[in-house]
Amino acid sequence: MRVVNYTENDKKMEFTLTVRMDKHEWSKFDVRTFDVISFHDKAKSSVNPKLIQNIIYQHFGLNDTLIEKMHDARKLGRIRRLVDIRRYCYYFIRTYTNLPYEEIGALYDQDHATVMHHVKKVTGWLEVDSSVMNEVEEIREKIIERVNPYHE
After folding, report:
1. CA-CA distance, 80 to 59, in Å (whole number)?
2. Buried (b) or exposed (e) across 91-113, using 16+ Cβ within 10 A?
3. 11's torsion region: left (phi>0), alpha (psi -120 to 50) or beta?
4. Is 131 exposed, middle or buried (0-12, 13-18, 19+ CB in 10 A)?
5. How many of the other CB atoms lie within 10 Å of CB of 145?
6. What is the pLDDT of residues 24-61, one digit of tens each?
7. What span, in angstroms and rounded, lies between the C-alpha atoms of 28 and 26?
C-alpha cells in the first residue's frame, strides 16, 4: 500500500492499493478516503482507563493495599513513589483515552486542575529526563501490547 495524497488542511488521507495480478499486469483498486482525526479518536475511545491503570500498577509492582490508596488522595498522602505512579496514570489515561480531565480526576478523587498539572509535569520530564523517557516507553509498549497483541 502506498500513500497517494495527504492534505494537511482537511485532515483526509487517500490510499491506493496496488496488486500484481500476474507477471506483467498491475492493478489499482480499493481507493479509500478516511478522516484521520476521527480514526485516531475511535482508536482512543476503545482503550479502557482501568486497563491502563492495571498495566501501570503491575509495572511498578503495587499490591492491593497500595492500589486502594492510589484512588483516595487522603490515604495516599505525599509518598513520592505513589504520587509519581499516579502521575503516570494521569498521563497515559489522557494520552490513550478520550476522557476529559474531570473524569480522569474522578477516578482518583482529584479535580481537573490537579490532573492537568500532573500531565504537564510528566510531559516536561519527558523532554529532559532520560529515566522518565525509558519508563514511559516501557509502559507505552506494555499498553500497546495489551491493546493490540499483534503489534510488532
Report:
1. 16
2. bbbbbbbebebeebbebbebeee
3. left
4. exposed
5. 12
6. 444 444 444 444 444 455 556 568 999 999 999 999 99
7. 7
The model's pLDDT over 67-101, given as tens digits with 9 standing for 90+, comes to 887 777 677 777 888 889 999 999 999 999 989 99
Grid cell 503491575 is found at 58
The one-letter amino acid code at 29 reads F
Residue ranges of domains in the chain, CATH in brackets: 2-41 (no CATH), 47-147 (1.10.1750.10)
CB of 37 within 8 A of CB of 8? no
Residue 11, Cα to own-chain centre: how many angstroms? 21
Cα three-residue angle 135-111-41, rounded to 5 degrees = 60
Side-chain half-sphere CA neighbours of 70 within 13 A:
24
Q: Is the pTM of this model over 0.85?
A: no
Residue listed under C-alpha cell 479502557: 48
